[in-house]
Design a protein that fits this description.
The protein is an alpha/beta fold. It folds into three domains: about 5-265, Rossmann fold (3-Layer(aba) Sandwich); about 300-305 and about 315-395, Four Helix Bundle (Hemerythrin (Met), subunit A); about 410-455, no CATH class. The chain has helices at about 35-55, 80-90, 95-110, 125-140, 215-225, 240-255, 285-290, 295-305, 315-335, 345-355, 360-375, 380-395, 410-425, 430-440, and strands spanning about 5, 10-15, 20-25, 60-65, 140-145, 150, 190-195, 210, 230-235, 260-265, 270, 275, 310-315, 445-450, 450-455. A four-stranded parallel β-sheet has the order 4-3-9-10, with helices on both faces. Strands 5-6-7-8 form a four-stranded antiparallel β-sheet. A three-stranded mixed β-sheet has the order 12-11-13. Strand 11 (about 270) and strand 12 (about 275) form a beta hairpin. The radius of gyration is 26 Å and the shape is elongated. The two termini are about 40 Å apart. The structure holds adenosine monophosphate (AMP) and zinc ion. Adenosine monophosphate binds near residues 41, 268 and 274.
């Protein structure tokens, strides 16, 4: 069974076997295209789902769509991201949000991220948030102020800070924007409801306005998944304040710990700098396609690193991933021509053990490369093994079957073998001569770190 690093307990924990598991993933704020860094965070949730589903667990996943309430500074001040961008683009917030929601769905589908069972939009679930806020007020965890705001009373939740380590007594006012907001009882309190008029506002018992971003995830997760959630995922930057606030709200309302395991994906860097819109260091999935690369090269490049390590992406790593992808698809097509054989059990077990070991995908890929090279394994067995493991990798490794000229022209296989031996003997002039001979037969040979590949 899967073992995964739990940010709150700060150790690798076993996910207890169960017939069904519930997972919540903090979804996108739909005011712009998701960059590939964002997409890395969503891959984490897809991997957890795929690994557990292979073990016959039924996964129920909820991933919200934030189309209101997420302010520019991620806290209690600044403009609403959707509203501000809608003004800049000269369209209505709803139109803008639907446009980027569709784009997000297209991107996640191109990366083979399985669609969540529930994708509630914030603007369509205001009633759930109002209900939750009313409950928190009634329980004494939240308070209203005369301007129509509602704040969560942080000091009523003493275990605040367990996920990120930012405990209330250590949080200095200066660490929070709005530190000296006179409406708050305590500087670390946060808004559940904000007074406002105009588009994207709703009437409530405490006045007209819109919800805070953090309350959205609590309301949706409690409604769509219930008060016992097995896994909650998001990018590492969401640990604080977003997930601390969410935990305080959900646990206060439920009266117990709602989320069993908090799991966070580390950031993606591009050319050595964090990928972020604010610094202009952004690559979109469409940029990858425009460069002539398969979008799934991004997925493979991500899998080469464990989700909780920072990783640096470059165009070179993307091109290398694209080459590996093409080679594996060609190999799978080639192996599909051989008589079928049972899976290479040892290799498959090692790969699956790596998946289970806190999603150690780099090790899983190393084992696959070993299997690819192992001449003692029948091609039919390699075929079965790669296809089986592709249920988690989701790299569409069978996509070239029936398409590729998987059959080498007569004599080419021998030349390839001879060239392989020449390469191993470092006889480069023979290798070059054999490459020319193969080219004359219409077979193009390329050398890769994993050995020679042909097309
Ligand atoms: P947003 O749409 O800005 O709320 O972000 C969506 C998700 O992407 C969140 O889970 C963030 O933590 C995550 N995220 C943002 N930047 C990066 C990055 N450079 N690498 C990985 N994940 C990121
Ligand atoms: Zn969230």
């Amino acid at each position: 069974m899967l073992r995964i690093y739990d940010t709150r307990t700060r150790q690798v924990e076993s996910i207890e076997p169960a017939r069904a598991l519930r997972m919540y993933t903090c979804g996108p704020t739909v005011y712009r295209h998701a960059h590939v860094g964002n997409l890395r965070s969503y891959l984490l949730s897809d991997l957890i789902r795929r690994v557990l589903e292979r073990q016959r667990v039924r996964m129920v996943v909820c991933q919200n769509i934030t189309d209101v309430g997420h302010l520019v500074d991620d806290a209690d001040s600044g403009e609403d991201k959707v509203r501000r961008q809608a003004q800049a683009e000269g369209r209505s917030p709803a139109e803008l949000a639907r446009h980027y929601e569709d784009a997000f769905r297209a991107d996640t589908s191109a990366l083979n991220l399985r669609p969540p069972e529930h994708t509630p939009r914030a603007s369509e679930t205001i009633d759930l948030m109002v209900e939750l806020i009313a409950k928190l007020i009634e329980q004494g965890h939240a308070y209203t102020v005369p301007d129509g705001s509602v704040f969560f009373d942080a000091r009523t939740f003493p275990s605040y800070g367990e996920i990120s380590g930012n405990r209330l007594d250590a949080l200095k006012p200066a660490h929070r924007i709005n530190a000296i907001d006179p409406r708050k009882r305590f500087h670390a309190d946060w808004a559940l409801w904000k007074p406002a008029e105009g588009e994207l506002t709703w009437d409530t018992p405490w006045g007209r306005g819109f919800p805070g971003w953090h309350v959205e995830c609590s309301a949706m997760s409690l409604r769509f998944l219930g008060e016992r959630i097995d896994i909650h995922t998001g990018g590492i930057d969401l640990r604080f304040p977003h997930h601390e606030d969410e935990r305080a709200q959900s646990d206060s309302a439920a009266g117990h710990e709602v989320v069993r395991h908090w799991v966070h994906g580390e950031h993606l860097l591009f050319d050595g700098r964090k990928m972020a819109k604010s610094t202009g260091n952004v690559v979109l999935l469409s940029d990858v396609a425009d460069a002539g690369l398969d979008p799934l090269a991004v997925r493979l490049a991500f899998l080469e690193h464990r989700y909780r390590h920072q990783m640096n992406l470059t165009w070179d790593t993307l091109r290398a991933a694209d080459r590996t992808l093409r080679r594996w698809r060609a190999r799978v097509a080639e192996w599909s021509e051989s008589p079928s054989a049972p899976m290479a059990a040892g290799y498959v077990e090692r790969t699956e053990a790596a998946f289970d070991d806190d999603l150690d995908t780099p090790t899983a890929l190393r084992v696959l490369r070993e299997l690819e090279r192992d001449e003692s394994v029948a091609p039919g067995a390699k075929f079965e093994s790669f296809l089986h493991l592709d249920q988690v990798l989701a790299l569409e490794l069978s996509s070239e079957i029936g398409k590729a000229p998987a059959v080498l022209p007569p004599g080419a296989a021998e030349l390839l073998q001879e060239r392989d031996r020449a390469r191993q003997a470092h006889d480069w002039s023979a290798a070059d001569r054999l490459r020319d001979e193969l080219a004359a037969l219409g077979v193009k040979v390329t050398d890769t770190p994993e050995g020679q590949a042909w097309s």
